[in-house]
Amino acid sequence: MGGRSQIGITLLGLGVVGGGVARALLEKAESYSRRVGVPLVLRRILVRDPSRERSVQVDRSLITTDAEEALDADADIVVEVIGGEHPAREYIERALKQGRYVVTANKEVMAKHGPELLAEAGRAGVDILYEASVGGGIPIISPLKRDLSANEITSLRAIINGTTNYILTRMSAEEISFNVALRQAQDLGYAEPHPANDVEGHDAAYKLAILASLAFHTRVRPEDIYREGITRLEPRDFRYAAELGYAIKLLAIARRDPPPADAIQVRVHPALIAADELLAKVDGVLNAVQVEGDLIGRVLFQGAGAGPLPTTSAIMADVLDAARSIAQGSRPSPWRYTAAVAVKPMAELVSRYYLRVEVTDRPGVLAGIARCFGDNQVSIASVIQKETDEAAQTAEIVIMTHAAREAAVQAGIQQIESLEEVRHVGNVLRVED
Ligand SMILES: NC(=O)c1ccc[n+]([C@@H]2O[C@H](COP(=O)([O-])OP(=O)(O)OC[C@H]3O[C@@H](n4cnc5c(N)ncnc54)[C@H](OP(=O)(O)O)[C@@H]3O)[C@@H](O)[C@H]2O)c1
């Protein structure tokens, strides 16, 4: 395909991110043209509502609502920034089959269908690039594919959802409830009116599926990932955690147990993390991914996880990469998954646990709780009595366990919940050591 005079681009979507991409293509056209060697030219832009006000001035004749027309335009690269699973997946597949490079920011499509789409790209002699699908502008896909590829990755721990990190940061700093912090996030445009995808951890799970698949060269599906959201956290959890020397973060964790076990853990849940760890200090809407490899040790990637400009930065890097390949006529090599690695059941996880329990304030309560855990081989590291309500004769206690198996802890908690003196088990959080 060498000897081109232009690289044609079709843009699917002209919303928050699509607007940023269109603007960059128009305003930085000269500099991109110098970097690639030939100009990048917008050929078609697909939208739903052509009458909508746009954040960027584009030639109206490029805009269409006809997907066939957009996909059949004479383009070398299709940039998909529609979002959602359908019809984005079908559009991407069709573009690849037509021999076009695809650049996408779509975590849902890549988490669910990445391997099939990469295989399709391979068959068509093109590539699908998806740096913007995780961590907005933070380079993480490309480092995992290239710069860290000589390592055996042992673990990956990430804060990859800006909405929840903002909510947790506010809850911690201002001692406000989840609902109040969520409303603040919505007022600032950091959370959507229907925030379940973020606050229940689905978004983070899609992103972790993408990262873990790259880190361990295997296919990790979103449904393989254990997932808990942040809606049950209360301001006092942050206070107690801080007193114990921890922050609470929604962590996406992928870890590989060394042979002979050779299995991976993949989970998204709120966790206590030591306050002096770098990840504990990643606040507000920032994202961060910490990767540990046998050669590199620990590296941390941190930055803006969303927003039109950072996301455009990642998308345009992929576009320029694809454009250079096309201009030079080089043959790409789409990422291939080379190993089948088992996912370890959550019940086998070994962790320390934080537990908040409301009990009737009377002698012998602690002994009863300790017995329930002891029956399940869970040993208690510390117990702190927190607030006492003398009128109601209740007390709240915070328990930290030693490292124990998840299944044993859950069995112990079931027993504890059945004790007469236990009013309720408020929250159970894993400690990420
Ligand atoms: N926003 C961010 O900061 C961010 C960061 C990283 C990754 N991403 C990813 O980037 C993608 C786009 O996000 P966004 O925030 O830009 O979304 P958005 O603002 O809702 O924009 C979506 C665009 O796609 C068009 N569209 C949607 N469905 C369509 C359909 N069926 N046919 C034709 N056009 C359709 C919309 O057309 P109309 O304008 O006519 O409605 C709109 O222009 C998503 O995959 C998202 O996860 C976003």
Q: What tags apply to this protein structure?
A:
433 residues, alpha/beta, Rossmann fold, Dihydrodipicolinate Reductase, domain 2, 18 strands, binds NADP nicotinamide-adenine-dinucleotide phosphate
Please estimate the helix content: 25-40%
CATH class of the largest domain: Alpha Beta
> How much beta, percentage-wise?
25-35%
CATH homologous superfamily of the largest domain, by name? Dihydrodipicolinate Reductase, domain 2
**Class by SSE composition:** alpha/beta
The number of helical segments is 14
CATH hierarchy: architecture of the largest domain? 2-Layer Sandwich
Choose one word for the global shape. Answer: elongated
**Average pLDDT rating:** 96
Bound molecules: NADP nicotinamide-adenine-dinucleotide phosphate
CATH topology of the largest domain: Dihydrodipicolinate Reductase, domain 2
Extract low-pLDDT stretches.
none
Largest sheet: 12 strands, mixed
How many distinct beta strands?
18
> What number of domains?
3
Please give the structural blueprint.
Blueprint: E1 7-12, H1 16-27, H2 29-36, E2 40-46, E3 63-64, H3 67-72, E4 77-80, H4 88-97, E5 101-104, H5 107-124, E6 128-129, H6 141-147, E7 153-159, H7 162-174, H8 178-187, H9 196-199, H10 202-215, E8 226-227, H11 235-243, E9 246-256, E10 263-274, E11 286-293, E12 297-304, H12 308-328, E13 342-343, E14 350-360, H13 365-375, E15 380-389, E16 394-401, E17 404-405, H14 406-417, E18 422-432
Helix pairs in contact: 1-12, 4-5, 5-10, 7-8, 13-14
The structure holds NADP nicotinamide-adenine-dinucleotide phosphate.
The site of NADP nicotinamide-adenine-dinucleotide phosphate (NAP) has 23 residues, from α1.
